[in-house]
Amino acid sequence: MSCHFLSTNGYDGLALRVEIKKTKQSTNITVPIADERIKLIAEAKSHGQLFHATGGSHLTSDNFFKAMEVPVQAKKVKQLEEEKKKRLQLEKNEAEGKEVLAMNKETEQLNATELEKLLLWHNFTKKEMGNKKEKLAKWKTILSSNQPPLLFQRWGPADEDKLKKLKESEINLNETALGRQKEIELKKMGAVMKHLNFHELDEIEEKMRAAREAKMNDMKAQKKSHVDKYDEEQQNGKNDIALV
Fold it and tell me: Which of 19, 92, 26, 39 is nearest to 237 (CA)?
């Protein structure tokens, strides 16, 4: 329009004409079956959020069952982190309690802070300790009864590695409710097959062959769909050229 206006007013408007290539780009909200999509589906609390997570595409059973496992895995991570915090605190209490004993002070000479460290080592909470006089009485009771400190399992490299793997691991379909149920059904099938006759075994073999062929066809169709979509986007990019 601008070039036409200049031309009608005696100017060489065509000299300013430019060619703009418009490329059609499809925006992937998330990649199907990717961790990002699984997490968004799990956190979706409305239809709009679910649409954003799936990009309007179908919610597959794999997506669904993996998404349901996200809060379960998050709960496991939280429990293990709390266990780590608890054990490290117990290690700290033990170290500080031993430091007090290493001072070789007479029991009556221990101050409130030192008594507190000794009682924490023996699994007393601060609320249970009371004032200095009560702390001293509790410590004397521990000494007279020869009560050992709390035994606990230290947080080690294997525990840290377990926590790290749990945080970073992808959700495997076999670890979901569907996967666990499939494992049960497979065990049942294995037990039943021992008691089947040849005719029944032939029927199962035929069904398994058909299921295998159907799965292969689905995989081929899915691959072809991705290739066709890519070719279509490339072709649209070549055709969408506009002159301004």
Answer: 26
Question: pLDDT of 141-195, one tens digit each?
Answer: 999 999 899 888 999 999 999 888 878 766 555 555 556 666 777 777 777 877 8
**Complete DSSP assignment for the chain:** -HHHHHHHTTS-GGGG--EEE-------SS-TT-HHHHHHHHH--SHHHHHHHHTT----HHHHHHHHHHHHHHHHHHHHHHHHHHHHHHHHHHHHHHHHHHTT--GGG--HHHHHHHHHHTT--HHHH-SHHHHHHHHHHHHHTTPPPPP-----HHHHHHHHHHHHPPPPGGGSHHHHHHHHHHHHHHHHHTT--HHHHHHHHHHHHHHHHHHHHHHHHHHHHHHHHHHHHHHHHHH-EEE-
Where are the domains positioned within the chain?
35-195
Q: How far apart are CA 95 and CA 99, in angstroms?
A: 6
- Contact in structure between 241 and 24 (CB atoms under 8 Å): no
Mention every residue, 6+ apart, whose C-beta is less than 8 A from residue 229: none
Q: Helices 35-43 and 47-54 meet at what angle, rounded to 10?
A: 170
Query: Which residues have a Cβ under 8 Å from the Cβ of 107 and sit 6 or more positions away?
Result: 136, 139, 140, 143
pLDDT for 6-58, tens place per residue? 677 777 766 666 666 655 544 443 444 455 555 555 555 565 555 545 554 55
Give φ, ψ of 142 to 5 degrees.
-65, -45
Q: Cα(32)–Cα(36) distance, rounded to whole angstroms?
A: 9
pTM above 0.90, yes or no: no
Q: Which two tokens stand for residue 155?
A: 């947080």
